[in-house]
Design goal:
three-stranded antiparallel sheet; two-stranded antiparallel sheet; 34% helix
Amino acid sequence: MSKSSLPPIDPTKTASGIALDPQTLERVIPESRRSDGSVRKQLKIRPGFTPQEDVRRFRGTKQTQADANALPKGHIIGWIPPSSKEADSSKPLSKSAKKNAKRREKKVSDKKADELVKDNWEDDDDDETIAVAPQKNEAPTKTNGAQSTDAAESLSSKMEKLDVR
């Protein structure tokens, strides 16, 4: 005999307590102990007999199909369960993972701060410094090259944000 054809050692019982005997392959009610300690004998069940507890409620083909296609109880159409990130957050993060998370948060906050555009366009003149070209008789002041390029880049990025199309 192959292993797949052997019945299980601990057979499952039906609602009425009927199980398949692994030695004889007959349906039986296994022996059990009474509360006073005596043992009930094993009872054989006639072939074809189905006790009332094991009889299922009749379901037509359309009802069976509808039950198979039905959504689980409490399910909302279009709702997607939250991602597993929340479940993973319960585990403590390692030192490097904490550092990386801080870096990501800082990067996102810096990006948001750069993208903010003021709601009131008239107040821009008060907050920003306006670069004035030197007159002919004044000599241009020397500044650090890196600072002037940074200023030029920030000015050009602000101009791009203000560009109306």
